[in-house]
Design a protein that fits this description.
Blueprint (H helix, E strand, L loop, with lengths): L2 E6 L6 E6 L2 E7 L1 H4 L9 H11 L8 E4 L3 H15 L4 H13 L4 H13 L9 E3 L2 H10 L6 E7 L6 E9 L2 E9 L4 H11 L8 H7 L8 H8 E3 L5 E3 L15 H6 L13 H29 L3 E5 L6 H9 L5 E4 L7 H14 L24 H10 L5 E2 L2 H13 L4 E4 L13 E5 L6 H9 L9 E5 L18 E4 L10 H4 L23 E7 L5 H14 L3 E6 L11 H9 L5 E4 L2 E4 L9 H7 L4
Parallel strand pairs: 1-4, 4-5, 6-11, 11-12, 14-20, 16-18
Antiparallel strand pairs: 1-2, 2-3, 6-7, 7-8, 9-10, 13-21, 14-15, 15-19, 16-19, 17-18, 20-21
Helix pairs in contact: 2-5, 6-13, 7-11, 11-12, 15-18
Length: about 625
Amino acid sequence: MKRILGISAYYHDSAAALLEDGILSAAAQEERFSRKKHDARFPKAAVRYCLDTAGVPLSMFASVVFYDKPLLKFDRLLETYLAYAPQGFRSFLEAMPIWLKEKLYLKSLLRQELAEVSGIPVEALPPLLFTEHHQSHAASAFFASPFPRAAILCLDGVGEWGTTSAWQGDGHRLESLWQIDFPHSLGLLYSAFTYYTGFKVNSGEYKVMGLAPYGQPRYVDRILDKLVDLKPDGTFRLNMDYFNYATGLTMTNERFHELFEGAPRQPETRLAQRDMDLARSIQDVTEEIVLRLARTVRRETGNECLCLAGGVALNCVANGRILREGIIRDLWVQPAAGDAGGAVGAALAAWHQYADQPRQVDGRTDRMRGAFLGPRFENAEAGIRLARLGAVSVVLPDDELILRVAGLLAEGKIIGWFQGPMEFGPRALGARSILGDPRSPTMQKVMNLKIKYRESFRPFAPSVLMEKVAEYFDLDRPSPYMLLVAKVCPERCIPMTSEQQALFGLDLLNTPRSDLPAITHIDYSARVQTVHADTNPRYHALLQAFETLTGCAVLVNTSFNVRGEPIVCTPEDAYRCFMRTEMDYLVVENHLLAKTEQPVLPDDRAWMQEFELD
């Protein structure tokens, strides 16, 4: 058996992935183990997990593949500073020591890290290969997709030089067509508005997307007139007079602030209508660029199928519009579209492009296994871990557990749901989820304020039985990775009264939009996850049981974490999150835990140190 280890690291969302004879066997982000959100360090724990899954030492692997070419990135860094000199001298002084100490010697650093984590000498390590950043994205999108042929768009902040790239995939071949280079970046344009509206770059972009429906597109013309020179084919150039990210330490500059009539919003301060209008405007511009690019690659390649990767591909509103506009017949988005997915792409590129191995595809089934690629804990082990924490639980057989949990959900209880292998990528898909009843008019507010401790405007996603999706949403295809936004079916929507139509901004928040108010955004949309019996049978069975009790085949599904923390990985993580929030019940495999039956915990930090098992 030929094994390949893919690695992404040192920027954000480091990860490792295991490929065995071309089959993706394991993948995980380092943040889940380290508990440091967006952890960019070398993914030691994720690599150990992949090695444990393989069951053989790293010396028996065919290769290790890194998702980036650091020398090309260094070339871009130097050329950028020279082009903008003497601007950016402070940023240059901050960046150079790190590059001169570590990143220019990344091959040596990687081999040292690999030797340390695997326990074998450097000379016994397998060959170390490097793919280009956008090649990794393209490979993760196409080679993992179900399509024998497809066009591919990679859209992100920046790799080495590329920020937007188009590819053609055919069999096990990838052909690069064209790319847009730094500093002209759709991802960085969106991040500039993320920064300007007071959210954190590289993690707050989805908040801007969620805030957009509360605003009006008042600034679209200003963005297109002053910031973006957008061509009919979707290619673009940014006016760098308004941005600071090329050489500075912030995203925007004073000219940008003057253009939009004020300084950036301070984080955690009150959201103004202007912030909502800015969010709506940049979302509309982003969608227009993505739609034009999709039409271009459809025309240039002749392909009816499109694959997407890169951080911008997580913009599920834009993805939904690509389908609704009828630009292509079918769309597949890599569920770990950001840098973490680069580990998968690097491994797949090595297998298909470097080793020249063919693909086996059927046009329907992708190779991500539902994204359930992380660690799992058997029932007995979960029980031991929970007992060591002093947790009180009852163990129920499968059928009884499903019926009991469905009944609790129907009563309005909020449940932490910890089952099977952990998801790979940013979305909880029914393995590490918090669940609720979507029919409840108070569920969104309760979950945001008492469970997630996050902004009240943030919408929640629905999980729906795949076989029933058309009864609830304007969607005619699977959406297993929660990467498509669709409208709620008209017959389920509640028209707005004349008084409600006069409202704007966050005043719209508590206005029910459908008979599933907890998952219907204010524009009557929802970020849909279809649940499939073949990839997640227990979650599928829970939805079936809930439908039997209530007539509703939908549940609220949000990630099992609180604001600022990664999604839980272990039973210990799950129990800690459960006890520090107002969840009512926790399910860990077959163990059911009621909040009212748990002991009072000591100080959080000391408690977790005492019972740390990993």
